[in-house]
Amino acid sequence: MRSYKFILFFLFAQASFAQQFEKIAFIESEVRLFTTDELEKVYIAQKDVIELYDPDGNFLFKNSGKRFGQISSIDATYSLKPIVFFKEQMEMMLLDNTLSLQGDVVPLDIRGYPQAELVCSSVNNNYWIYDRLNLELVRVNDQFNTIASTGRLDQLINIAPDPDFLIEYNNWVYLNDPLNGVLVFDIYGTYYKTIPLLGLSRLQIRGNNIYFFKDGKFQSYNMRSFEQAVLPVPEEDPIHVRKEKDRLFVQSEKGITIYRIITEK
User: Fold this and answer.
1) For a designed S-S bond to 204, which of 27, 132, 211, 249 qualifies (C-beta 3.0 to 4.6 A apart)?
2) What residue ranges do the domains of the chain occupy?
3) The dihedral sign for the CA sequence 11, 216, 168, 125
4) Measured between alpha carbons, how far is 159 from 256 in angstroms, rounded to an integer?
């Protein structure tokens, strides 16, 4: 898909710079959920199908997990080994950068996690699993043997969390609980703190910033300065938004539009 000569201009009242958006491509798709990786590639889930696009919106690869049901989450933290999770079936697919299945599909219930709620990648070919049965985060190796655990979170932090999102970034683990905030742990399962961002569903972490879409607005939270900001989006009524380097990915009812971010001091 070719770049469009379509520039939108925004001025920040709180900052001394202007931001422009150049429309790069539009991916027409019935998007159920999507994510991106640090190479600016786009992963789109359509019920039981996952598609991969390059930063310019060109189609690359496709994988269908029809026998596994509906896709619950995609973790593309490691672009060479994305993870697709099917919560209803308690099954996890390990893919490569062409979306080809690597090894067998992993039945988490048979592996000892009959109530696996969330999964994500970890460093050194390890994985995190949120075990609702025991209310704990468990880190497992590629043989799914436990190598770290938080223990019961209701005893650790005096709440019984109801999380809906899990990600590891730069050796920190972020467990999002819409009612209580973002719980942060180190890679050994040691509780560190709770970030008081409530009502989130999906979040993205890049550098010191948490990016999230809430109340129809794309926002950021700096974990060092604790500053929160509303970020400009070149569309009205988006469904979800993600940011990677100089790309902005905006989901609408008809698909995903990719913009190049141009910042002028």
Assistant:
1) 211
2) 27-231
3) negative
4) 37
For the ranges 67-71, 183-187, 234-238, the lowest mean pLDDT is seen at 67-71
Q: What one-letter code names the amino acid at 115? A: Q
pLDDT at 190 over 90: yes
| pTM score of the predicted model | 0.91
State in words which class domain 27-231 has.
mainly beta
Radius of gyration for the alpha carbons in the chain, expressed in angstroms and rounded: 19
Cβ atoms within 10 Å, residue 17? 9
Tokens coding 88: 């209803």
> Which residues contact residue 251 at a Cβ distance below 8 angstroms, ignoring those fewer than 6 apart?
31, 34, 238, 239, 240, 241
pLDDT surpasses 80 at 99: yes
Tokens in use for 86? 């099917």
Nearest to 174, CA basis, from 237, 122, 224: 122
